Amino acid sequence: MSPTRLPNALGEFLRARREFVRPEQVGIGADTSRRVPGLRREEVAHLASISPEYYLRIEQGRVRRPSEQVLLGLARALLLDDSGRRYLLRLASPRPFMRAVDDRSTRLDDRVARLLAHWSGTPAYVSDDNQYVVAANALARAWVPPGMLDPGVNLLVSAFEQYADFRGTTSPDAPEYERMHREWEGTLRDLTAPLRYYGRPDDPRLQEIVGMLSARHPVFRTIWAEHLVKPQMSRRTRTFIEPLGWVDFRAQTFEVPHTDQFLTVFFDEPGSAAAAAIAYLAARDELQREGTGSLEVEGSSGETASDSRFSRARDDAPDGTKTSSRSPSGPGAFKTL
User: Fold this and answer.
1) SS3 (DSSP) at 144
2) What share of the chain is helix, strand, coil (3-state, %, to 5)?
3) How far is it, in rounded angstroms, from Cα 282 to Cα 285?
4) Can you state the angle between helices 82-92 and 9-20, rounded to 10 degrees?
5) How many CB atoms lie within 10 A of CB 63?
6) Which domain of life is it from (predicted)?
7) What's the angle, vertex CA 137, arms to CA 134 and CA 138, rounded to 5?
8) What average pLDDT does this structure show over 144-154?
9) Ordered DSSP codes for 170-204
C-alpha cells in the first residue's frame, strides 16, 4: 500500500485548528453571513498580529520557517493548549528523519530491559512514537489477550481492529450500545492524539500507519482530520481479565531518555480491585511457568486465597470499582477514563 504523504503538515494543522475555534471564543461577534466553520484566515492573522497575506503563505506551505514569535501568536489565536503549542513549534522545525541500523525507536535500552524483567509484580511495556510495541514483561502479556503486546504489534491498529469487531458483532439495539460506542470513539481519539503529537510527518512508518488505517476505517479518517494532539500521560484503563471480568487500573507513561520510546506501567492503590487482580495474574503466571497448575475462580465456597483477596477488594474498593463476567465487547485494555 502506498503511504499517505503529508507534504504540508504545518498548514494542515493550522487549517484544521482554525475550523475548530468558534468566533465567539475569541471575541468576534455573530455573523449570519459567515459561510465557513470556525475562523477565517484574515481573522487568525489579525489575532496573531501578522498580515493576512503572510498567514496565507504559511498555511499554503510557502513559508519554510516562521519565527517563534509568529508561531506563538498563532498558538494564542487558535487557543492551543501547551501540547498543541509544542506540537506547532515542532512542526515548524522538524527533525530530519534518518533510517539507521540502530533505530532509536526499535532498540530497547539494556537498563529498561532489566527493569521490565525485574518488575514481576507490575505489568509494564515499552512502545515507540508510532505506538509499536517494543517489549513487554511477562505480567503485562498475561494482562491482555495473547499476542496483543508482542514486539512489533501496533497498539493503534489493534484498537481500530477491535473497534471494527465491536461494530460488526454488536447490534445497535443491544443494551448500552450507545454508551459503549461513545467510549470506543473516545478511546480511539485518546490513542490517535499521541500518534500525531510524537510522529514525524516524513517518517515512512507513520505514513504507512495513516495510509492503512485511512483505507480500512472511515472513523480513523474522521479522527485524523481533527488534528488532535496530546502526549501520553497518566490515565485510567479498563481491562477485561478472564475470569475476573472488567477491572479499572491506573496507567502511567514515562518517556525513556534519549530514545523515541515510552514505558507504560499499570498499578493501583493497595486494597483495590486492580491491585488484587495484578496479584492474581502474577500468581497465575508463576504457576503456569512452573507447570504446577492453575488458579480457578470457583465462587465464595471454593476460592483460592488469591481469588478471595480479589473478591474482597472488588467488593470493598474505595473507588467503587466493580467487575462483571460479561464478554469483552467494550474498549478493553485501550479504554481511557
Assistant:
1) coil
2) 45, 10, 40
3) 5
4) 150
5) 17
6) Bacteria
7) 135
8) 88
9) S-TTSTTHHHHHHHHHHHHHHHHHHHHHH--TT-H
The grid coordinates of residue 83 equal 501540547
Among 317, 46, 263, 220, which Cα is nearest to 133's? 263
Residue with cell 522538524: 94
pLDDT tens for each residue of 51-97: 999 999 999 988 878 999 999 999 999 999 999 999 999 888 765 44
Summarised one tens digit per residue, pLDDT across range 220-253 is 999 999 999 999 888 887 777 777 778 888 889 9
315 contacts 222 by C-beta, under 8 angstroms? no
Q: Considering only CA atoms, which of 264, 268, 262 is closest in space to residue 252? A: 264
CATH number of 110-267+328-336: 3.30.450
Kindly tell me the burial class for residue 60, based on how many C-beta atoms sit within 10 Å of its own C-beta (0-12, 13-18, 19 or more).
Answer: exposed
Q: Where are the domains of the chain?
A: 9-92, 110-267+328-336
Residue 324 has pLDDT above 70, yes or no: no
C-alpha cell at 75: 498558538
**Is the pLDDT higher at 301 or at 277?**
277
Please write down the long-range contacts of 291-295, taking CB distance under 8 Å and 24 or more positions apart: none
For residue 187 the three cell numbers come to 478511546
Interior/surface letters 185-222, b for 16+ CB within 10 angstroms, e for the rest = eebbbbbbbbbbbbbbbebebbbbbbebbeeebebbee
| Least confident piece of the model among 18-22, 282-286, 319-323 | 319-323
Q: Are 9 and 201 in contact (CB under 8 A)?
A: yes
Question: Picking from 53-57, 204-208, 316-320, which range would have the lowest pLDDT averaged per residue?
Answer: 316-320
Select the more confidently predicted residue: 230 or 323.
Answer: 230
